[in-house]
């Protein structure tokens, strides 16, 4: 790891100001950034820690749904979202191991947009709103490809607002080594229809399986997706699974999520 | 009832107190005054010719003390392989030089070609990045079949077909085996891959070189399973430092599984750098480096054929194997696929004709060497898989076909057609015990219950035999081994009766400090807590050939017994003098020397005290002191054996495999500490499950390691394994060592993989997937699902 400066602002405004300096990089739970730095794959000159900012932490039930502060660790979401949004809480509780859940944050996960991360599926399937220091971004616009988001240079995710579905469930099939999602499917049923978001499988990261959404909006039963098949085109293939295997898993997990919702 | 702290007692491991409270002292924990830090620059290409290495910028970097390259080691020797194997045409194998640092060429991703020593590790790492190497990339040789076929591309320029040897075992039997296949009523053929594994000991390797310019003595602190062998290799082959000027210390070591048996170039490099700088030089491997530089295990591609009659009686067996050596020959690389593999191909069966052919192939990958089980898991896997396939083809129950072919319990000593003499065993007994513990009768009901939940249940059986306690020296010498394979122990009874035992076998997780003390407590009738086990320091202990091959108890433990006999003999002489009796009348029982038929006696402590304060002592005929050393060179291998049963549930929708029951019935001979034996089996089975379901080193065609971290290399976690049923009540004691012990460390890793794969294939075939006869390990969900698609 190369040397760097660490600043720990206590407000969003201070953090934004600190990120304005040359070579600065936001640090949340550090679950991706710190290993990259240790391997010398990243060498920011200055890290701006977001985990001491009180206004970015906590889980709170609001009029428009559940608001989760971006610097809230997974373990806290798993506990505190349970009464309001069990599927989201369950997802958070299945990320990594206890030490990962004590450090990793929802904002860090969304901003990193790892194609195998779990949170992007929840955000996209819930039609969540990503709130930043300067604007609000719909989840559908936020995720823009592998490790790519709509965030501008120096822009900080401050919270995530989840509309609460009538029913929802997340199913994750773990990649055996990393236990990230080899495929993860989040199904959420709202009054105006069903949303199905898939992580782990897409070459461009998280995506919605619109065909399944249509079928499930008409008939919210596992059997409704039986006749569908997702094309393997555009899906990831690696030593843990071919695109065809991932396409198959998407369907299996969608059915299981519907059954569990 | 075993004596408290004696043989047969499940004494808690005394070493765990320091390990579990963070008081262990590992090489990385040692900081010597004035130590500098080393970092190695490793090749990023699999195969390349080194045109030039410009170290000038690196040398100017802050804190840099020295930059060494292969050029600095051209005057020293190479790291040898321990066994010279003969090809079947009589030619001696080819042995490429393995330099301390790569010279002329780099031969695998991770091959170290420069070393920087600096005041801090970060400075050394910074300077490594400033080294400018001009390396002409050459096509990578990754696939073994291609390596053999294409002689224009060579890992070592002087070895034209990349083949180190082409070994036939036993060559004289080849014609008879082939003839038996010509006429056999049934032949079962199976092609399989024994997947390459990365050992992943919890503690990465580390070494500190410490040269004393005042005395000219070298000290090496290192993560080694056998410090004496490392000293021997550095002295006799690599650096020429005489043994009396080199001390090798392996302090607490956090696991080895084989990977720390071997001498590695980094050890010689830190010694050389320490001498040059006149400062201690420390290197600690990081996990990414470990994936690229610790010896890997397994990596065989095998075709096995079993000839039988219609009743399933085995008539003949033959195998053809390509064994991957990687880019250089590591210390045990050549004996693992030969004398630890081919000699075990008879298994526990009385197959009359067996022929094994192994070609050892060089590739641009990390060197491959012995890994928990070493050769014997490969043999067992091939054999137990082909037997299941044969049973299926012939319509014979897997239990029955094995039972029909087992060596009869009355047939020992039994000479196999592959050069071993099994001294004792009872394979029927362990398999019967397994059958009883596995609740075979309840299987159908369990399978039905699984079906209700949409799961496919299967049962897999395997039996295994191992040759442990590698020996004897005169035999292995004939077979090409360059060292002897005995072990040694010194028992030092101190003046007040407590005991230091200096043992050759190093402990790095096995629990020797507890078990060896139990042996001495039982043998000398003393309190185990008064016995201290000393190991891991060549300046203290007499000699040792190391801990591997499940040999510590059978070989080093036997050396301890011999030394203890000498202590008792001398104690009797002292007692005879003190008790004014004839030596022949002195008996030693329960820690006291007595005159037979009387109540006159001296305690062990009194005898010890007298030996060091010899006021009333036969000084004219007996030296003072009570310290004895024994070397023990066994008469034969030991042959533990057993039977394993695995029950799996396969999720037909995802291909996921869940192990729901796992049962082991082992014959380890006499057991000293049942709790530790159970733990050894648990660990071995977990590793076997790792190989069967999860682990696999993967290179791409450019020789880049795709599984270079835990993000892609799947180690078994606690929730990947079930609660095991482990039994070792079947005992046929080893006939030729004083303990009757056989060894248990590798058993789990040997018996498990075929049991798991047999179970998965069984589950799929029961569910109607008749086209599936085999799936290569690791049986990942993706592979199982793909196989099910036909």
From TrEMBL, chain A:
Tell me which UniProt keywords the record has, alphabetically. Answer: FAD, Flavoprotein, Oxidoreductase
Alphabetized SMART domains for the sequence:
CO_deh_flav_C (SM01092)
- Domain FAD-binding PCMH-type: residue ranges: 1-167
| Listed InterPro entries | CO_DH_flav_C, CO_DH_flav_C_dom_sf, Diverse_Substr_Oxidored, FAD-bd_PCMH, FAD-bd_PCMH-like_sf, FAD-bd_PCMH_sub1, FAD-bd_PCMH_sub2, Mopterin_DH_FAD-bd
- Lineage, top-rank taxon, reads Bacteria
Q: What is this protein called?
A: Carbon-monoxide dehydrogenase medium subunit
TrEMBL record, chain B:
Matching Gene3D superfamilies: Aldehyde oxidase/xanthine dehydrogenase, a/b hammerhead (3.90.1170.50), Aldehyde oxidase/xanthine dehydrogenase, molybdopterin binding domain (3.30.365.10)
- One Pfam annotation reads MoCoBD_1
The highest taxon in the source lineage is Bacteria
Is Oxidoreductase a UniProt keyword of this protein?
Answer: yes
The record's listing under InterPro entries reads: Ald_Oxase/Xan_DH_a/b, Ald_Oxase/Xan_DH_a/b_sf, Ald_Oxase/xanthine_DH-like, AldOxase/xan_DH_MoCoBD1, AldOxase/xan_DH_MoCoBD2, AldOxase/xan_DH_Mopterin-bd_sf
SUPFAM superfamilies recorded: CO dehydrogenase molybdoprotein N-domain-like, Molybdenum cofactor-binding domain
Domain Aldehyde oxidase/xanthine dehydrogenase a/b hammerhead per the UniProt entry, residue ranges = 21-139
Keywords for the protein's UniProt record, in alphabetical order: Molybdenum, Oxidoreductase
Can the keyword Oxidoreductase be found in this entry's annotation?
yes
Name of this protein: Xanthine dehydrogenase molybdenum binding subunit apoprotein
């Amino acid at each position: 790891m190369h040397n760097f400066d660490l600043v720990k602002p206590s407000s969003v405004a201070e953090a934004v100001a600190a990120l304005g300096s040359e070579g600065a990089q936001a640090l949340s739970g550090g679950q991706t950034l710190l290993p990259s730095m240790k391997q010398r794959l990243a060498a920011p000159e200055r890290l701006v820690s977001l985990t001491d900012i009180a206004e970015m932490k906590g889980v709170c039930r609001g009029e428009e749904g559940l608001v989760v502060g971006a610097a809230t660790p997974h373990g806290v979401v798993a506990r505190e979202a349970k009464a309001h949004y069990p599927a989201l809480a369950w997802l958070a509780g299945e990320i990594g191991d206890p030490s990962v859940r004590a450090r990793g944050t929802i904002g860090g996960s969304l901003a990193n947009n790892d194609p195998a991360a779990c949170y992007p599926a929840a955000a996209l399937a819930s039609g969540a709103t990503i709130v930043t220091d300067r604007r609000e971004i719909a989840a559908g616009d936020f995720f823009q490809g592998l490790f790519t988001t709509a965030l501008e240079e120096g822009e900080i995710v401050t919270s995530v607002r989840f509309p609460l579905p009538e029913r929802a469930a997340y199913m994750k099939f773990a990649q055996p080594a990393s236990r990230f999602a080899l495929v993860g499917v989040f199904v959420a049923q709202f009054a105006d229809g069903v949303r199905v978001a898939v992580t782990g499988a897409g070459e461009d990261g998280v995506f919605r399986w619109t065909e399944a959404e249509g079928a499930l909006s008409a008939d919210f039963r596992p059997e409704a997706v039986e006749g569908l098949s997702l094309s393997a085109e555009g899906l990831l293939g690696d030593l843990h699974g071919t695109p065809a295997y991932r396409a198959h898993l998407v369907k299996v997990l969608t059915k299981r999520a519907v059954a569990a919702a | 009832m075993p004596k408290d702290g004696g043989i047969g007692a499940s004494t808690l491991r005394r070493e765990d107190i320091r390990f579990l409270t963070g008081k262990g002292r590992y090489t990385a924990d040692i900081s010597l005054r004035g130590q500098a830090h080393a970092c190695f620059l490793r090749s990023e290409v699999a195969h390349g010719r080194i045109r030039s290495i410009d170290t000038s910028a690196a040398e100017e970097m802050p804190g840099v003390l020295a930059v060494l390259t292969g050029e600095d080691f051209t005057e020293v020797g190479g790291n040898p392989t321990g066994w010279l194997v003969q090809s079947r045409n009589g030619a001696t194998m080819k042995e490429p030089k393995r330099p301390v640092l790569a010279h002329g060429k780099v031969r695998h991703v991770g091959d170290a070609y420069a070393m920087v020593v600096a005041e801090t590790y970060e400075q050394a790492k910074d300077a490594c990045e400033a080294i400018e190497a001009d390396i002409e990339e050459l096509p990578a040789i990754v696939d073994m079949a291609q390596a053999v076929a294409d002689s224009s591309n060579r890992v070592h320029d002087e070895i034209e077909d990349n083949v180190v040897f082409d070994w036939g075992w036993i060559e004289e039997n080849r014609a008879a085996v082939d003839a038996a296949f010509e006429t056999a009523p049934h032949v079962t053929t199976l092609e399989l891959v024994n997947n390459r594994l990365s050992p992943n000991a919890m503690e990465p390797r580390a070494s500190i070189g410490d040269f004393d310019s005042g005395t000219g003595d070298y000290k090496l602190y290192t993560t080694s399973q056998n410090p004496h062998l490392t000293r021997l290799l550095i002295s006799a082959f690599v650096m020429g430092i005489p043994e009396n000027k080199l001390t090798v210390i392996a302090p607490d070591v956090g696991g080895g599984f084989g990977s720390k048996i071997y001498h590695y170039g980094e050890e010689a490099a830190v010694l050389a750098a320490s001498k040059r700088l006149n400062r201690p030089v420390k290197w600690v491997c990081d996990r990414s480096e470990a994936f690229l530089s610790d010896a890997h295990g397994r990596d065989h591609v095998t075709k096995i054929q079993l000839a039988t009659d219609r009743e399933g009686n085995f008539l003949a067996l033959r195998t053809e194997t390509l064994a991957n050596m990687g880019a250089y020959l590591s210390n045990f690389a050549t004996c693992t696929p030969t004398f630890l593999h081919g000699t075990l191909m008879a298994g526990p069966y009385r197959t009359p004709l067996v022929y094994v052919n192994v070609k050892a192939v060089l590739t641009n990958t990390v060197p491959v060497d012995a890994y928990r089980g070493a050769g014997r898991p490969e043999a067992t896997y091939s054999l137990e898989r082909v037997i299941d396939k044969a049973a299926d083809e012939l319509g014979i129950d897997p239990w029955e076909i094995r039972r029909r072919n087992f060596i009869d319990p009355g047939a020992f000593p039994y000479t196999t057609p592959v050069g071993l003499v099994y001294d004792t065993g009872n394979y029927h007994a362990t398999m019967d015990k397994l059958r009883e513990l596995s609740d075979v009768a309840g299987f159908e009901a369990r399978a039905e219950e699984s079906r209700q939940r949409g799961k496919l249940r299967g049962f897999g059986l395997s039996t295994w035999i191992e040759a442990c306690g590698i020996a004897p020296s005169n035999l292995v010498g004939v077979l090409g081994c360059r060292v002897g394979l005995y072990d040694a122990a010194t028992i030092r009874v101190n003046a007040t009766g407590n005991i230091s035992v200096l043992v050759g076998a190093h402990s790095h997780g096995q629990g020797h400090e507890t078990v060896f003390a139990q042996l001495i407590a039982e043998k000398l009738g003393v309190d185990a807590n008064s016995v201290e086990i000393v190991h891991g320091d060549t300046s203290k202990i007499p000699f040792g050939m190391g801990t591997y091959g499940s040999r510590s108890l059978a070989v080093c433990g036997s050396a301890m017994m011999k030394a203890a006999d000498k202590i008792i003999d001398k104690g009797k002489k002292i007692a005879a003098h003190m008790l004014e009796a004839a030596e022949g009348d002195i008996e030693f029982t329960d820690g006291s020397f007595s005159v037979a038929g009387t109540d006159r006696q001296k305690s062990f402590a009194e005898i010890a005290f007298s030996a060091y304060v010899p006021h009333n002592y036969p000084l004219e005929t007996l030296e003072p002191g009570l310290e004895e050393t024994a070397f023990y060179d066994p008469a034969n291998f030991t042959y533990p054996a057993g039977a394993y049963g695995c029950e799996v549930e396969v999720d037909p929708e995802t291909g996921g495999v869940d192990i729901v029951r796992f049962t082991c019935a082992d014959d380890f001979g006499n057991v000293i500490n049942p709790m530790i034996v159970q733990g050894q089996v648990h660990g071995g089975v977990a590793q076997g499950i790792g190989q069967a379901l999860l682990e696999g080193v993967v290179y791409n065609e450019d020789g880049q390691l795709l599984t270079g971290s835990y993000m892609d290399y799947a180690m078994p976690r606690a929730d990947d394994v079930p609660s095991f049923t482990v039994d070792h009540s079947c005992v046929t004691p080893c006939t030729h060592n004083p303990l009757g012990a056989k060894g248990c460390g590798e058993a789990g890793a040997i018996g498990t993989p075929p049991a798991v794969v047999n179970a998965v294939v069984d589950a799929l075939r029961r569910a109607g997937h008749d086209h599936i006869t085999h799936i290569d390990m690791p049986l990942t969900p993706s592979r199982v699902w793909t196989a099910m698609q036909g």
